[in-house]
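Input/output pair, single chain:
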Amino acid sequence: MVTKYGLNTFLFFTAFSVIVFLIGLIVSNGWVKYSLIIFSVLFFLFCLNFFRDPERKTPNRDDIIVAPADGEIVIVKETNETEFIKDSVTQVSIFMSPLNVHVNRIPISGKVEMNNYIKGEYLVAFYEKADKRNERTEIGINSKHGKVMFTQVAGFVARRIVNTLKVGDDVQMGNRFGMIKFGSRSDIFAPKNWKLKVQVGDKVTAGETIIFELNK
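Output:
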């Protein structure tokens, strides 16, 4: 199904595709006719693929942090998070290409205690410093196992972040909360009591892939 977070954009692009397709039907020049028809069909299929919103099966556990986004792990590093956790953490960055599902999901159950929107640049999302320089939202959740932070980072193509969360919301792991349109990135910051379960190059699925497991 098409995600509700991008329905208006999808309908606009669908209308555009239909108009281009109809123009192609009435054009007499054969080369132009078939170019317009093929373009309109491919563009519609691309939009349908981009705004898809498949169901996911989230693990029934409370000692894990799951991926908030589909994509590929591009950065794993130790850093110091100063906005919400305010401690040394492990950062995992997920790059979403335009071919990935772009609906974002809650990585851990708890209460939203931070939800900041920050204006910024539109550097390519896999650039290491994009998490500090690009337009983004920073979301902090206080779970039963402590604080966890994650982000939605706009990329070079992505210029629209959708986020329906509010401070004070009680959220459940795996639930949808927004999306980033047309290629982007999501970062997760977890304290040292969480054990890393992925590495650079891994492909992950929002709401399903375990990124961290509580270190018991």
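The mean pLDDT is 90. The helical segments are 7-26, 30-50, 130-133.
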